[in-house]
Amino acid sequence: MPLFSQSREVVKFQVDLGEETSGGFDSIFVSGDIAELGNYDPMRSIALTQKEDNIWEADLSLPVNRTFTYRYFRRSNFNGGLDSDIREAIGDPIKASTSIVALDPATKSFSYRGSLNRPILHWRQTPSDDFTMTALVAVVDRWELARFGQSNRRTEFFLTSGAAREPAALGGLPEDDPTYSTDSDQIFVQNEEIFTYQPAFLISPPRRDYDPGNLPSIQSRILSEDRPYRVFLPRGYDEQTERFYPVIYFLSGQQLFEDDVTVLGNPTRIAPALDPDASTLSATIASGRMCIF
After folding, report:
1. Residues 78 and 39: beta-carbon distance below 8 Å
2. Model pLDDT, residue 266
3. 73 and 90 in contact (C-beta within 8 Å)?
4. Whole-number pLDDT of residue 183
């Protein structure tokens, strides 16, 4: 698998509003036609930081060898959702490319450990293409495919059993077969979950690393008070003791995992948990929609 620094680069996005100001009431966002830029989904657009009166910018990590288009948007800070809040596009769409880099390896690899007998990998790297069917090879305790496709490209795939179904009978994507999507160049699937590393045979589920009734806290020097926090650990954390994990921070995230939490300290406003037991977030990672390197 290519090193993260080898397959990506930092790209600066900067827009100068000129004489036109944001008035202090708007924010500026960028969105584009690749996953890192939200695929033009308003809910996933990237906020820029105001550096000077009329200049907004952001440094983003993007894949190399990629051509994309993007556009800047202005959004009000006062209304509710991002979906209805983007009220004005700034300028025309811009076409750009990241650097051309020869990656090593140039292909992807695949490993499967699960219940399927003689598994067949169905994969594609262009959404409009048909799936290519490739049989996996038995290697000790798993099934493997040493090389396929091109590295540094998102791959959509699913698995079927070669023993149970003839490949020629597959007319399309079977509804009862899980479909995955990932940017990883080394793909591991175990018990119908996708990993970017070789997991242990048995892995622990995601779990809270705190007692909801007795939250840990940290002293805030700015607020001069103790502030509670919550930590949710990913699947396999207990087995992968030497692995480092990226961290997702949710500010004011008390409503994410816990039910019956007051909204903004108002005891008359009680909100249900947005993602009880982190099931939605965990499923997003397991299907490859969120890639944990």
Report:
1. no
2. 54
3. yes
4. 84
pTM: 0.59
Nearest Cα residue to 152 out of 286, 36, 24? 36
What per-residue string of b and e applies to 98-124 under the rule 16 or more CB within 10 Å gives b? beeeebeeeebbbbbbeebeebbbbbe
Phi/psi at 268 (5° precision): -85, -10
The answer to whether 188 and 195 have CB atoms below 8 angstroms apart is: yes
How confident is the model at residue 29, as a pLDDT?
A: 93
With a pLDDT cut of 70, the percent of the chain lying above it is: 78
| Contact status, residue 183 vs residue 291, Cβ threshold 8 Å | yes
From the number of C-beta atoms within 10 Å of its C-beta (0-12, 13-18, 19+), residue 86 rates as middle
Q: CA nearest 179: which of 149, 150, 205, 155?
A: 155
Q: What are the tokens at 63?
A: 């894949």
Contact status, residue 2 vs residue 105, Cβ threshold 8 Å: yes
d(CA 44, CA 162): 39
Candidates 165, 186, 185; CA nearest to 174 is 165
CA–CA distance, 142 with 188 (Å, rounded to integer): 10
Distance CA 186, CA 150 (A): 11
> Exposed, middle or buried by CB within 10 Å (0-12, 13-18, 19+), for 90?
middle
Q: Is the omega angle on the peptide bond into residue 216 within 30 degrees of 0, that is, cis?
A: no
Nearest-angstrom CA–CA distance, 208 and 212: 9
Domains of the chain: 4-97 (2.60.40.10), 108-195 (2.60.40), 207-286 (no CATH)
Which amino acid is residue 210, in one-letter code?
Y
Is pLDDT larger for residue 209 or for residue 26?
209
Cβ atoms of residues 95 and 67 within 8 Å = yes
DSSP bridge pairs for 65: none
